Every structure is written in C-alpha cells, then in structure tokens.
Amino acid sequence: MLLRIIVAIVLTIALQIVGVAGLPRLGLYLIVYLIIGYDILWKALQGIFYGRVFDENFLMAVATVGAFALAIYEKSGDYLEAIAVMLFYQIGEFFQSYAVGKSRRDIAALMDIRPDYANIERDGKIVKVDPDDVEVGQTIILMPGEKVPIDGVVEAGDSSLDTSALTGESIPREVGRGDEVVSGSINISGLLKVRTTKEFGESAVSRILELVEDAASRKSKSESFISRFARVYTPAVCYGALAVAILPPLFMILFCGSPFDFATFETWVYRALVFLVISCPCALVVSIPLSFFAGIGGASREGILVKGGNVLETLSKVKRVVFDKTGTLTEGVFQVNAYHDPSDHDLKESKARLLEYAAMAESSSTHPIAKSLLRAYGRKVDRSRISDLHEISGHGVIAVIDGMRIAVGNEKLMVDQGVEPCHCHTAGTIVHLSIDGRYAGHIVLGDVVKPTSAAAITDLRRSGVDRTVMLTGDAPAVAEQVATRLGIDEVYSRLLPADKVARLEEIMGAPGNGMTAYVGDGINDAPVLSRADLGIAMGALGSDAAIEAADVVLMDDDPSKIGKAIRISRKCLRIVWENIIMAIGIKGVCLILSVFGIVNMWLAIFADVGVMILAVLNAIRAMRVKRS
C-alpha cells in the first residue's frame, strides 16, 4: 500500500510539472488513478454484484469516476481532484491499517508467551516435546531463559521468574521447592525441575490466549450502534446526493426557465460528488472498533484481561464493587497470630508444645489450616511418634502422639470429647487442643490481608466508585476486622454461595445509578460472578470456574488493578465519544455547506480523510496506559 501511495504521488507531481494535453493526459491520469484506486473499484464492483452496494468503496468509486466524467465533459483536463480524492482516501486507509496493526502487534506480543516446547528427561537425556504431550504429574525441566510451558510445582532448584508478560509486574518472583509456577512466565536464572499440575490446554497461558482471542469477537453497544448506523446512513447519503444532483436543476427547469441540458445539471452534479466524498462514514466505522481494540490491548499489557468491547463499556459504568474476602482481599493463606494456654506453663514452652502437637496431628491433612500449622512449625514431622490418627470431617483430628491422646479442632470437637473449651475473644480461626481429655489451650490463625488491598479500596473511591461491600462465609468478628482495616463500607458474613447471590441481588436492586461489579476467586464465587453486572476474577490463583464465569480477569490477583481497569475503560469510552462527536459534527456542517456550493472537493477530502486520520490517531491513545 505504501509503495502504491508513493508511486501515485510521484507520478501526480510529474504530470503537474510536465505539460501533457489531450488524450495522452487523460490516459496518464487514468494510469495513476488505477494504480492508487484499483482495489477500491474492484471492491465496489464486488459489492454491487453481491448486493452490498452502499459502502465506503461505492461512495469513493462514484465520487472519483464522476469527477473524471465532469472533467472530460468540461474538457478542462483537470483530473487532479479525482486523483486527490482516491489518493488521500488511501492515505487514510494506510493510517488506519497501521494503527490496527500496532494494536495487533501489542496483543501479538502477549501471544508470544505461548511456549513452543517442554523439556523432559528420557534415558538420561533432555528431550524437547510438544507441551500438549506432557501429562499431569510428569516432571519437566526448565533451563535459564526458557518459558514455563505448563503450570506446576517446583520439585528441585531455585530461580527467579519473569512474570511481566502475564501480570504486567516487572519485579521477578523468587521460587524454590514447593512453590507454584505459572505457564507463560520466563525462567531467569537457575535450573528448575517442575512437576506439572495441569494439562497444557488448562494451564494459565492457554486460558489467557483464549480470553484475548475471544475478546475481539464481543462487540460493545457503541460498536453495534455504529455498524447499524452505517448500514442506514450510507444509503441515505447516496439518495441525498442523488437528490442534490437532480432536484435543484429540475426546479430551475420547471420554474425558472432554465434550458433542459447537462449544463443546467453540471454544478449540482459536482456538488453531489462533493457531498458523497464528505459523507463517507469511515471515521466512525474504523475508529470506534479500533478504540475498543486498543483499550483491550492496553489493558492486556497491564495483566488485565477484558473479554470484549461490551465488557469494557460496562466496566466504565461501575459504581458499586462487591468483594469476596478469602483469596481476593486476603492471601487465602493462614498464619499463626496468637496462642492461649490456660495453665501456668512458661509461655514460650507452651507455644512450642501447642504448635508441635497441632502440627503432628494435622500432618496428614490437606486442609489449608493444617498446611498453615505445618508451615508455622517449620520442622520435619517425626511420624514414628504418631499412631491411630483419624480425621473427623467438620470437626478436626484425633491422634495418639507419644502415647497421649491428642484432639485438635474446633469447639464442636472439644465438646464431643467431653472437654470444656476456652472461648477466645481474638478475631480469627481458633484451633483448640486437648491432651488425654484435658483442655491444653488454643492457637489463633488469621488470614493474611494482601498488601495492596487497602490501596485498592482507596483507589476505587478516587476512580468514582460510590460503594464497596464485602461478602464472606467467615465469622462476623473476622469479617468486621478485615473490613475495618481496609475501609470497606459494608460487610456481610457467614454467607453460603446461595446467600451471596441473594445479597448481591439486593445490592444491585438498591437505588442509585451505575453497574455493580463482583470480585472473587473461588469455585463458590462462580454463581455470583455470573449474576453480577460485571464479574472480575483472580486469574493466577483463581479457580477455572471463576475465570470462566468472569468478564474481567486479573492475572496477578492484585485487587489494586480494579481501579486501573475502570480508568482504562472510561478513557476508552471518552475517546469513542470524542470521535463520534468530532466526525458527525464536522461532516454534518460540511454536508450542509456542500449543498450551497461553499465546500469544494479539497475541503471535502479533509472532511472525509482528514477526519478519519484524526479519529484513528485519537483512537490509538487508548493503547497507552499510565503505570501507577
């Protein structure tokens, strides 16, 4: 395209300098015209053949062929206007294709996170295989500089991972034995052996690519409106141009005594051609989808995956944000916060004794509380000291340790064992212990609040969100403590998934303008995410069900990016409306002036191509996201 534009410009300048007249002049200008416009003419013919007559190609073809016909009729030899219309239109198309290409390249950079191979060990040798051929539980080897092909857990080695392509976070993440690694990140330094936990098609990198690819197919209301508008607008202006060419001269012939010949129609035919050039809806048809496409691309680079232009439009209207607690505002990882021993034992000795027995009793459990106790204990459990261990669902664990009967669990377990538990006033999850039927004390566990959660709530208020709410299944004391610490407006506790949906519907039905967004991460959040006006899921640790149900996915589980996502969407919508007002305003004024002969073909070119270039350049701004 660029080569054709350059050749056409050079030939046009040469023809203006070299004095060629008559048929040779017409022939040379026709050659230049066909060089720059043959594809437009061909598309216009195809549109006529397939019944899609009224489009921008048809408008350009009629306007330029008509300008040639007028110049031939007038014997003026001035074919420059026809060439200029087609040339500047193609320059505008080039700008548009460049802008779309840049946006696609930005998203293609995200697509580049797809790994090409995985390393496995066979017969003492490292072999490269297709990631699709790697099974769950198989060990893969990651060399420095290689992409992580599949989600897994580090079995051996220490390294740093570059997760910027997934999360937009530039700081490397340190990983070692037992840490999770996410596909799409890059191994920076050491060699790692990773046991896969998912198939390639279910890994984070595959989910990201599917989300981005699907996003382009979801049109916003603004995009759909512009498409419908163009289908009505284009034939309307074609008929309008025909009326400009025919009705005024007929009026002059019938009522003013003008002769019935082409000279009477000549001026009005020229104005009709100018009318057609001005009316081309390219600025709207091109810039509006491009704005959304650019906005989605810009958000993707920040680790915010938006599932389409319709979602971006809804996001811009969010005024209420409802949060899940565990895994969303908190890490979902418990830590020991306090101990209580009702006896007179030395406090340090008491802590060590309570934690040791609790960790040993819970050593075979996969429950998050058990993992937290083992992590706090920090030593290898001597299983030879444990016997007769059994877990009571919903209550806790009973085991014989060092010949003593140890019960570890909640108050219900203590009551079942005939032990009177000591009630704790500290907010958190309480793990009670009894030894040989005597109450030994309790350990208080608390969920760790994410370091960015408080800033996220503050940022949402700056972004225009009127109301923040937290819904959780936790106890009231724990929920209130977290909500107060973060500055959340309202909190509702002890909610089952169905209760969350009911409470969300109450919030959505409350008086006030704007949309309601729900932010969650777990399988139990999927129904609420689907019910909300807008669902936002945590993508790194979130469940597949939550990610599937959500409209927006935060790839690094950082709640502070919700405010950034809202600002990106509002900037994108602001650009869309700027382009709509600019295009319709300029074109409307020029169309009226063209009927009265005030606007000539050169101004018509600006009203068409110039406005389109300005709109496209404005749309590109949606790709630029300020880092905060």
Strand order of the largest sheet: 10-22-21-20-11-18-19
- As a percent range, the share of strand residues is 15-25%
Rounded mean pLDDT is: 79
- What does the radius of gyration come to? 34 Å
Q: Note the overall shape.
A: elongated
Please estimate the helix content: 40-55%
Number of strands: 22
CATH architecture of the domain at 332-448: 3-Layer(aba) Sandwich
| Low-pLDDT stretches | none
Give me the CATH superfamily of the domain at 332-448: Calcium-transporting ATPase, cytoplasmic domain N
- CATH T-level fold name of the domain at 332-448: Calcium-transporting ATPase, cytoplasmic domain N
Largest beta-sheet characterization:
7 strands, mixed
- Total number of helical segments? 20
CATH class of the domain at 332-448: Alpha Beta
Structural class, from secondary structure content?
Answer: alpha+beta
Record keyword descriptors for this entry.
6-stranded antiparallel beta sheet; alpha+beta; 22 strands; 7-stranded mixed beta sheet; 628 residues; Calcium-transporting ATPase, cytoplasmic domain N
Gist?
The protein is of the alpha+beta class and 628 residues long. Helix 8 runs parallel beside helix 20 and helix 14 (453-462) packs parallel to helix 19. The longest helix has 35 residues, at 221-255.
